[in-house]
Structures are given as structure tokens and as C-alpha cells.
Automatic annotation (TrEMBL):
<dbReference type="InterPro" id="IPR014858">
    <property type="entry name" value="BrxB"/>
</dbReference>
<dbReference type="Pfam" id="PF08747">
    <property type="entry name" value="BrxB"/>
</dbReference>
<protein>
    <recommendedName>
        <fullName>DUF1788 domain-containing protein</fullName>
    </recommendedName>
</protein>
Amino acid sequence: MDSIDERLNRIESIIKKDSFRKNKGLGNEVGYYIFDYDPQNEIKVREYIEHLKNKVNDSPNSSFKILEFDLYNIIIEILSEKGYLDKIFEFEKEKGREFTKKAINNLLKLSSESNLIVNYIKENTSLNSVVFITGVGKSYPLLRSHNVLNNLHQVLDEVPVVMFFPGAYSGNDLILFGTIHDNNYYRAFPLVE
């Protein structure tokens, strides 16, 4: 397998292809991709994403923009806007983590069609963009990546979506941090082998 640097360096040429941005994967499926990586490389991946985002978005010749959605930051933003962030800290102190996790899931409507995170991404995505989803590890255990992908897949199909996943993706299974098995997710393609 290629090193993390070699794999990261291949992303730019992939996302710049017109065929990639027309958002059709293999078999004419909607273009959802996973870039999996060893969690030990989290900082390197974050730095590369920031570098690539600045390079593409600041280029006057670029025909698209990279939109990054950090799942953890979205959770914090939504809870803050709704005035629940301080209450969540109190819940955790008084009622424990499991209760708090369930309360956050209910507040964010993670199990429904009106999932606030999915709607946030959809509402803030423009045409001629490539969506990067980050913060998967930071948002665990509040949010599971397959939940976001399954729900987003139903409402966002105009632009390609790349989830940066700290773990392994076999083409069927997502294994967060290399140890936590998520539900099967088979609609995404590996971005870089």
C-alpha cells in the first residue's frame, strides 16, 4: 500500500477530473467516496485538507470549490444556536454520557428525515463544489458515519462527497479507528486505493 503522503497527493488530481465532478461513480451511482486512513495520521490529513482547500478555493482558474463540513463543529454550532450547549454539559454531569448521547441524538433529529446535520450540509452546499466531510473521529460516539452517509445520500446527489474516515473501509464495512465496526455501508467508492 502507498504511504499516507502518496495517497494524499493523489487526491488533487482525482477531484480535478471533470468525470469526478460530474458526480457519477462506477455503474452510474451517485459519487460518494471514502478516503480511509490510519487514525495516527489525523493531523497530517487535516493539514493536507486545509492546504488543498486553500489551493483550489484561492485559485482564480478553479472551476469548483471545496466545501469542508466538520461533523463535530456542525454539532457544536447547532447546539449553540439552539441554546442547548450549556444544558448538554449539565446533562452529562447529572445524568451521564449515555443519557447525554441520546439527548443530543434527539435534539439533532439524527434518526429522522429532518436530520439537522444532513440538512445543514445540504443547505450549505452549492453547485460546482466538492464536499469534504471531516470530523468523523471527533464526533464519535455522538454521531456514526454510516448514519450521515445514508441520510445524505438520499438528499444530496448534485456534487461529489468525500468522507475522510480515520479507520478502514473495505468497500462494505466502515471500521472506525480500526476497531469499532459501524453498520455496513456499500454505496461509497474508495477515493484512493
